[in-house]
Every structure is written in C-alpha cells, then in structure tokens.
C-alpha cells in the first residue's frame, strides 16, 4: 500500500499534472530578472517555467537543431531572424520586449577612471567582451567601437568570452582590466563598478525580441506566459533591474 | 591542402605549445617517476594521489583550481604579477600550464613503469665498475627505461594536443593568442562552420598518427 | 692481499650469516652447498649488501665499520664482481660493455686492453650484440669487463656453472693463470670441489652461514 503511494507521488511530481511546463530559452543577460518574474508567475498560474540561459547565438543554434524550446527571447534581432528564416517561430507572436544599455565595467577595487572608450587604448591591457563573432553583446560592442574607429586598436586587448555573463565574471575576478556588458548585468554584481555608460544615442540599437516556437508543446500555456511578460507586474520587475521596456 | 593562414597559425601554435609543455614536465616527471618507483616514505600515497588528480578530475575542475591559483588575485598569479609583471590567465602561458598539468600524470605513470622494468642488479654492477650514481642513471637506468619513457612522452604530448576543458577556463579562447586546435574546433562547431571543424579534425588525426608512428620508429631502432 | 672480516652478522631467511676471518691467500675459494650463504657473503664484501654488523677492511682500507656507522660505497671499493646471473648490459655492445669500467680513466698498464682481450680470447666478439653471445662467451666477457676496471680484488660467484665440460676447462685454465698474469687476487665461490682444488690455494668451508673449516683444498675436499 505504502509503495504504491510513493510511486504515485513520484509520478505526479514528474508529470506535474497540475500545470504545464514551459521551456523558455533566454539570453544570458536575462538570467536574474527572468527567474524572479517566472517564480511570481508559477505561484499565480501553477505552471512551471524551465529555463535555458545562454548566449543567444548558442540558443538559436540549439533550437535549429530542434531543441525543445517553447519560447525564445533573444538579445538581438539577427538571431530571431535566423529562426524566422528557418520557419521555426510563430511569427504572429513575435514582438520587441526590452532594450538595454552598454556599459564599461571595471573590478570594484580598481582605481581605473575612464572618460571615454578611447582611454581604454592606453589605460587597459585586457578587456573582456562576449565573443563578437556571434554573441549579441559582443556584436553590439564591436559595432559601437567600429563606429568610433577604436575596434582595430582595441582588438588585440580583447578576451572573448562565451556569453555576456562570462565577461562579467572575468571582470569580477580581476583577471581582466575592464569589460563590456549590459547595464543590467553591472547592476546585479557588487564586484564591478560602472566606469562608463554608452548613451542611448551613441550606442547601437539594442533589442530583445521574444517569440513562441511553432513546435511549442503547450501553445496556450506558453501564450499565457507571454502575455504575463508584458503585464504591469512584469514591467515593474524589468525596470527595477534596469531594463528599458519596449511594450 | 586548402588551409587558411589562420588555421596554419593555430596548428603551429598548438604544436609549439604542446612540445614546450612536454619538455617542461620531462625533468620533473622523470624525477618523480623514479622516486615513486625506488623509494618509500611517509606521505608517499599523498604524492601519488596529487600526481594522479588531473587524470581523474574532470578537466574543467582542474581548470578551476588553476584559475583560482594563477589568476591575478590568486596566490601564485598575484606573486607573478607583482614581482615579475607577468600575467598567466588569458595568455599563452595558461595554455602551456593547462597542457602541462593535464599531461603530467600520463608521463609519470608511463615512466614509472619504465623504471620498474629496469633490473636494478645491472645498476649495482655498474657501480662495481666505478660509476657514480648520476652516470649509472644516465647510462644504465635511463636507456633501459626508455621504452616506458618514450611512451610517456608520446601520451603526454597527445594529451596536451587534445586538451580543452582546463584550457578554455584558464586561457580562454582568444584568436591568435590562446586558441588551440581543440578550441578552434569547438568555436567552429558553435558558429556552425562545420567544414572548418572537419578540416581541423583531419589535422588532429594526422598529428595522432605521426606521434604514434614516431614513437614506434624510436623504439624499433633500439631493440635490435 | 689482506681481507679482514670481523664480526660480520647478516640475518638471512633461514639463518644468520656469521663470519669472523682473515684471508691472505691470492686465490681463495668459498665452498659450500647451495643456500649456505656464499653469495650473501660475497655481496657483503662487494658492498652490494649491507650487513647488520661488520668490520671489514681490505689491504688496510676500511670497507665497513658498523660501530662507527661507516660504509664505503660500492664504486669506491674497486672490486671486480662476476655474479651468477647474466650481468652484461643488454643495451650496449660487447665493446662498450668492456670499456664501461675503464671509461675515461688513465690507462693502467697492468690491465691493458689487448692483453686482457687476448688472454680471454674474446677479440672476435667485440662488435657482437650481447644477446647473441653463448653462455661461455658471456662469462668470458664479464670477466674481461671486470678486469678492465683495474680491480684490486676479483669476486666470482660460481662463474663456471651451467657450462659444458669443454668450456669449463678452457675458462678454468684462464682463471688458474689470471693471478699470475694480472696480479689480481680473487675470491671464488663454488660448490664444485674440482674447481676449488684446481684454482685456489685455500678454501673456506661455509655451511648454514658459518665457517666450519678452512685449509688446503686438496686436503679438505680431495
């Protein structure tokens, strides 16, 4: 009798008969804010949100290889366009969710003062930047620095990282002198200090598009969560973390 | 063969770094292998365990330890930075470090087996003929242990070429500075450049074949 | 020659080797059944084994003195050692084996290369590989190698065992005249009374680690 109760409980836990499971693949910079929003949503709805955070380039590739995602939030348009071209997203669900700002961070104990990115040429030896070949944060940084004519000079100093959070960690550890991350990343870390903020007009347009996948398992549950992401509560949370809301 | 200059640079860099790291660990590795074979002392088990650790731990775990120790704020990294103005993490030195640490246990294990196979009575006879300890080691012990030692060197070199987990943590994947063959294959796969990945894979296979063939050649010349 | 062994004690598996003896003859045999401790005694004199206690000196040069914690390393004893087992260096040619002991040392006229090679009749073996030698050839090369290091004493552990009668005789003759030819005294371990009588002036009888007799081989073993 006891054993069958155990088995049943185990099955329930595994099947989550109460609510749906939604697989959200989201850019690394969204890690903390999305976890908070999801936890609030789970209490309300009884659904369970499962996350896969990483560089948008890596996630897009996984989705193309048919990884089981229900929703994708990218840190740039290009990755979402890739999936659209491959016919993998429900285009009517796509919209711009957020924007962000680029900043230059230094370790919190560092005495380095930077009035402009130009000063990095003389005042730094190693700069962490998410891999500019594919990761949005890196691509934005390269676009910005190229526009300033600084990319060639700074490239030899750049240490490419797997995603923007890895760049943050590199700065936190002190193994690099500075790094390019999003303002929202700098906000959650007490071990770095913002040395320079790229003004909205100066930097490249940063966009976080969101869309549901055509192959989503539980489309209505995913759609419900998408609606929640654009609610007043979600907006408050996003803004608290420093994101610029676009909905 | 249609390889780009960048790819050639990566191959040359990888071979140079691995050759260097193997040469670096050779004297220490042989010394420790010899000591482990010939002597017993309290705490010997500890030495054996520490030497074997990089073989057993997941490479990224070893990479983590190296990162903490050799980072600018780590005990060794800080010392090097302050007194010699030298950075290890995110430079070619970290690549050498990761390769050396990960391949060390393989060299020691093989060399130790090599030393075990040496008839110590022959060493004794050499002494009766007046040879000092160093001469006995160089003219009797080492040549007779050579099979195991050469096997160890080849294994160590191969392991260094294939090193990835510790390298990516402690050296990063910096094109032109720390990118090795393994790291470049990883990047190519990540970026969807499958053709590049396959080409580099071919190079790895060629290196593997060459290493084994070379070691067979070396050993064949001796056992006539 | 003067080999003084005082209060030598060495625990072996079955018994304790205990020897207290002075040896003066140029050719001395150590005779006894297998397991008597002959090899252990030879190894101790050579410095290849450390006794529990001993005071050993050769021609007034101190080898061992356990009381003073003194022990002269093997390589400084200048002894030629011909063991029972195959002791040629397998990775070196015959020539290189022969020259190992005289490497870089000034040429000692008493132990001239060609003299020794001819005496032991191994001139034709110089370029051969060690593995290709027969047992008899092997033994002659080992003896030559030991001689070439200009030893002050030659220790031979059953050198003629596992040789056929014809070879035994040939090498026997060489050993008989070795002292006259090169002036090197020798300690000769054997369990064959014929060998002891043919080669040596005095025989030491060893049994279960103890000397139970010494004297003229012809009288004791005849």
3D structure, described in words:
Chain A is an alpha/beta fold and 247 residues long. Chain A is built from eleven helices and eleven strands. In chain A, strands 2-1-3-10-4-11 form a six-stranded mixed sheet. Chain A has a five-stranded mixed sheet with strand order 7-6-8-5-9, with helices on both faces. In chain A, strand 1 (21-27), helix 2 (31-45) and strand 2 form a beta-alpha-beta unit. In chain A, helix 2 (31-45) runs antiparallel to helix 11 (232-241) and helix 3 (56-64) packs parallel to helix 4. Chain B has 224 residues and is mainly α. Helices cover 79% and strands 0% of the residues of chain B. Chain B is globular, with a radius of gyration of 20 Å. The two termini of chain C are 26 Å apart. In chain C, the strands form two sheets. Chain C has a six-stranded mixed sheet, sandwiched between helices. Helix content of chain C is 30%, strand content 27%. At the B-C interface, helix 6 and helix 7 of B face strand 7 of C.
Give the low-pLDDT segments of chain C.
none
Instruction: Count the beta strands of chain C.
Output: 11
Proportion of beta-strand residues of chain B: under 5%
The separation of the N and C termini of chain B measures 38 Å
CATH architecture of chain C: 3-Layer(aba) Sandwich
Rough outline of chain C: globular
| Largest Cβ-defined interface | B-C, 17 and 25 residues
Q: What is the number of helical segments of chain C per DSSP (H or I, 4+ residues)?
A: 7
How helical, in percent, are the residues of chain C?
A: 25-40%
| Strands of chain B, total number | 0
Task: Look at the helices and sheets of chain B and give the structural class.
Answer: mainly alpha
Using the coordinates above, name the CATH class of chain C: Alpha Beta
Query: What's the SSE pattern of chain C?
Result: EEEHEEEEHHHEHEHEEH
Q: What fold name goes in the CATH topology slot of chain C?
A: Rossmann fold
Average the pLDDT over all residues of chain C and give the rounded result: 91
Q: What's the name of the CATH homologous superfamily of chain C?
A: P-loop containing nucleotide triphosphate hydrolases
